[in-house]
């Protein structure tokens, strides 16, 4: 696995950031393709100010029309009003390597991690990333996100499953309803991500799996191929416990209510059945992902310009086609 001495090198030519993580194929232990694009998420306190500074340093990173017509103000407004608050600069060439980086307001990043309001960057952070800069302790905040992702996956899994199946289900959450998956993404994407980063997923989620086991919601055993076999309690009380870890905004849209106990202080979730809860949650997440992916696709196409947009879409569709051809 690459270390932070090589990952994150692009930061040398960018304005300071409060948060930076690298994600994607760069983290695959067996990735020897030096031509692959290195992907970044950058968190900043004031995106407009940051873009203003970056335009002075790296104007070539932006679509020429956007930099000339509206500058930092237009870049930020397009990300906020059309997209989901993230502006991406893809195909950035530096030091004989290609990069893509997305810039987001720190408050928006934290909100999505905790509430899944957009279920965009929160979904990205449910998968392995390498954090390079973390001035706001996002890694600690993200534990809440990981716990919620674990709970959502458990709700969608049967009573018995493997460790690999758990990570695959977690990984698939942020792709449910993603419009790109219909025509511009590798159909084997989830499988490839989990297989390529299995140990990274284990490092992220094993403490939470053990936490659920301690609460007797899960039972763990070895299945002989260096991974755990897991069985879960599917009772209504266990389901209520799992659902309680989902963000409040998701529970609210699911229509999961609370009732006061006799003490009049604590409350408990009211759930009709596990199947109903799983269906309702899936519907909520699919809608959020669909809306966010559509908005970000439009914003991204506008941000990079027609030529780069077609180039990026073409590369995605080629991967999707190659994946489909292998299946056939």
From TrEMBL:
What are its GO cellular component terms?
mitochondrial inner membrane
Q: Does the keyword Transferase apply?
A: yes
Database matches in Pfam families? Tam41_Mmp37
Q: What is its EC number?
A: 2.7.7.41
Q: In which pathway does it act?
A: Lipid metabolism; Phospholipid metabolism; CDP-diacylglycerol biosynthesis; CDP-diacylglycerol from sn-glycerol 3-phosphate: step 3/3
One annotated GO molecular function = phosphatidate cytidylyltransferase activity
- Localization: Mitochondrion inner membrane
Requisite cofactors: Mg(2+)
Q: Name one GO biological process term.
A: CDP-diacylglycerol biosynthetic process
Any keyword Transmembrane helix? no
**Top-rank taxon:** Eukaryota
Q: Which residues cross the membrane?
A: none
Protein name (database record) = Phosphatidate cytidylyltransferase, mitochondrial
Question: Organism, per UniProt?
Answer: Ambrosia artemisiifolia
């Amino acid at each position: 696995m690459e270390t932070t001495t090589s990952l994150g090198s692009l930061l040398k030519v960018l304005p300071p950031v409060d948060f930076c993580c690298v994600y994607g194929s760069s983290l695959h232990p067996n990735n020897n393709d030096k031509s692959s694009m290195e992907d970044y998420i950058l968190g900043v306190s004031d995106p407009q100010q940051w873009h203003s500074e970056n335009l002075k340093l790296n104007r070539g990173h932006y679509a020429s029309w956007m930099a000339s017509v509206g500058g930092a103000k237009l870049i930020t407004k397009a990300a906020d009003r059309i997209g989901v608050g993230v502006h991406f600069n893809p195909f950035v060439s530096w030091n004989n390597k290609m990069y893509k980086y997305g810039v987001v307001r720190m408050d928006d990043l934290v909100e999505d991690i905790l509430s899944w309001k957009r279920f965009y960057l929160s979904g990205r952070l449910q998968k392995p990333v390498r954090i390079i800069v973390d001035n706001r302790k996002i890694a600690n905040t993200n534990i809440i996100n990981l716990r919620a992702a674990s709970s959502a996956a458990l709700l969608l899994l049967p009573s018995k499953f493997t460790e690999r199946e758990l990570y695959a289900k977690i990984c698939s959450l942020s792709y449910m309803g993603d419009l790109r998956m219909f025509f511009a993404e590798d159909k084997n994407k989830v499988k490839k991500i989990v297989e390529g980063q299995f140990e990274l997923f284990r490092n992220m989620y094993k403490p939470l799996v053990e936490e659920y086991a301690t609460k007797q919601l899960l039972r763990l055993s070895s299945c002989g191929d260096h991974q755990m076999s897991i069985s879960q309690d599917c009772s209504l009380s266990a389901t209520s416990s799992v659902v309680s870890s989902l963000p409040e905004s998701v529970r609210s849209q699911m229509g999961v209510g609370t009732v006061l106990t006799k003490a009049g202080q604590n409350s408990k979730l009211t759930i009709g059945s596990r199947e109903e809860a799983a269906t309702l949650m899936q519907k909520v997440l699919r809608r959020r992902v669909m809306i966010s992916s559509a908005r970000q696709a439009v914003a991204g196409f506008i941000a990079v310009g027609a030529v780069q947009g077609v180039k990026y879409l073409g590369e995605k569709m080629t991967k999707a086609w190659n994946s489909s051809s292998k299946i056939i």
